[in-house]
Prior knowledge:
This protein is of the alpha/beta class.
Amino acid sequence: xxxxxxxxxxxxxxxxxxxxxxxxxxxxxxxxxxxxxxxxxxxxxxxxxxxxxxxxxxxxxxxxxxxxxxxxxxxxxxxxxxxxxxxxxxxxxxxxxxxxxxxxxxxxxxxxxxxxxxxxxxxxxxxxxxxxxxxxxxxxxxxxxxxxxxxxxxxxxxxxxxxxxxxxxxxxxxxxxxxxxxxxxxxxxxxxxxxxxxxxxxxxxxxxxxxxxxxxxxxxxxxxxxxxxxxxxxxxxxxxxxxxxxxxxxxxxxxxxxxxxxxxxxxxxxxxxxxxxxxxxxxxxxxxxxxxxxxxxxxxxxxxxxxxxxxxxxxxxxxxxxxxxxxxxxxxxxxxxxxx
Length: 340
């Protein structure tokens, strides 16, 4: 029996173990991406062959069936008709070598199979970079695509600049927020404390829904003036925006009083809690419904520190989500100066 390792030997063992573990992770990532590249090349050859063959859909279908049979006989599983069609679609989503080399090695085939089905090229680029940089699992990526993550951003970054651009609140904040993971009954009146408790109970899912850079600070966070105490529902810090973010939950439609209250919270927090080097505090009023007229004609309009967003407790359909996103765009009303 070997003797117990001394402290230096133990440290050496842990160091070498980490080297080997990292090497295995990198090897697995490399192997996965090598297969992704192979699938792209298979898709390219299929498309090239289709273009040389008869100009009708039946030719492509028969080609795929025969190819699937022969590849399956030699290489086993993984080359079903459905998979070969996926390889073909993958190539069509990234139809040149430059786009192939722009793909992210951190992602596996399951990620790409989901991303390539996104029709908007800018959205595809966004999900590609976000999934890689944020370490989304394929399940998280699928949920975020289904929930229209990219469309719900207040301002989605341009495809060519989204990696290098400095994050802004508009590139991180969303409207609406989708909280289907709370499993709250639909068409039921909920209390604010119940929603708050459910969010804390599902904090990891809520942080993922909030987006990049959020860390939880506290709930019912107290700030005090000389005469009164005030309690903020939820407080977060965002290390990308380098500021505190206050969230106030409202189970009803947004009111002027809600906006005034959040304005006061933000001002007090800036005065009492904001640290040296922190950017100005931001406030989000998370409400069950909001009147865009109130948003336009209140201090929310053109206020860089206050935001209002609706929350949904169920995952909407594409049509429902489109209506929600359309509703947040207020029609510009011309001023006298515009008309002169």
